[in-house]
Amino acid sequence: MFSRLPRLAVRGARGFASSSARQTKVAVLGAGGGIGQPLSLLLKMEPLISSLSLYDIRGAPGVGADVSHVDTNSTVKGYPADQLEAALEGVDVVVIPAGVPRKPGMTRDDLFNTNASIVRDLAKATSKVCPDAHLLIISNPVNSTVPIVAATYGAKFNPKRLFGVTTLDVVRSSRFLGEVTGDRPEDIKVTVVGGHSGVTIVPLLSQTEQAKSLQLGGAEWGKLVHRIQFGGDEVVKAKDGAGSATLSMAYAASKFTNSLLRAINGEKGIIVPSFVRSPLFEAEGVDFFSSNVELGPEGVEKIHELGAISPEEQKLLDACIPDLIKNIKKGQEFVASS
Ligand SMILES: NC(=O)C1=CN([C@@H]2O[C@H](COP(=O)(O)OP(=O)(O)OC[C@H]3O[C@@H](n4cnc5c(N)ncnc54)[C@H](O)[C@@H]3O)[C@@H](O)[C@H]2O)C=CC1
Ligand SMILES: O=C([O-])CC(=O)C(=O)O
């Protein structure tokens, strides 16, 4: 049955999807949307999930009924607008792609006014119903929505269990670098640090074997870095008013969810970039930062240092920090004043 699903089949073959895997209930909040629908389908194909809870203010019962016919073992239920708390009952992992996407000419920060309160209200519900769940935040601006969730949790905030999903930047880096070098994207691993918008996205290409032929600071490198930082804009422009990345984002979110689920199930050595509460640049006033994070049963097990970076990458980092501080503060102040 899984012959059409090579990535999942490999996972199964490694034994982590065996019947000894723990029962894991996952909720998607915003499941009726452009990301939510394909993400729900991909999570239905995830052997480490036993139960899927799909919530949206529009259309989730329909998406739930549809996805529930897929012939994998997990159960699926869609919940309408007035059943958020029921949707969160007993949930271990909550993935949140709820909120509006960009239109051409907008920055991610332009989404703040609409999405900040959506994310805050969903976080209020998760902190009440499933306070120990791992939270995977997709809604933009991620640099602000993740601090919003942390601030909403207040004393209940567990920094090990809150993740801004920056995986699409990693996915794009592999793909775009592969287009330049001719290497297979599947073989390329790029550590992307910082945040998730424009210049806060910092790909550490000097640490990637396949990027060694690029002259750091040269035109080709500069073009590639710019494409990685502004890859989201390419999609927004091509969709011409109909939204932003949905399919590649659903893929990226399912990839990150799988990494976390494998770690929760005891697999060791899973290290992926994610935007988390981080000590790395705390002294400079940056409370949240994306870097390589080692995942474990409790969520964040270890936050890795950046390692050796080139002078060109240091410049990118210097440009990232002030924007990141602004975005994080904006989220924290929103919760403090609401
Ligand atoms: N982290 C990342 O790398 C990426 C983040 N995004 C962000 O993801 C978000 C969603 O994007 P799309 O799925 O394309 O948008 P969409 O508009 O297609 O879907 C959003 C869904 O959220 C639902 N929603 C709104 N308020 C809600 C609430 N209070 N509770 C539950 N559901 C609610 C809507 O009904 C809709 O179905 C946007 O903010 C977008 O910017 C998009 C791509 C990549
Ligand atoms: O560009 C956007 O607004 C959506 C997004 O975060 C991405 O595609 O990276």
From TrEMBL:
Which residues does the Swiss-Prot or TrEMBL record annotate as the active site? 196 (proton acceptor)
Gene Ontology CC terms, in alphabetical order: mitochondrion
Report the CDD domains cross-referenced here. MDH_glyoxysomal_mitochondrial (cd01337)
- Do the record's keywords include Isomerase? no
| Positions contributing to substrate binding | 102, 108, 140, 172
- Native source organism of the sequence: Calocera viscosa (strain TUFC12733)
Task: Write out the residues that bind NAD(+).
Answer: 30-36, 56, 115, 138-140, 249
UniProt keyword terms in alphabetical order: NAD, Oxidoreductase, Tricarboxylic acid cycle
List each copy of the Lactate/malate dehydrogenase C-terminal domain by range. 166-335
- The name this protein carries in UniProt is Malate dehydrogenase
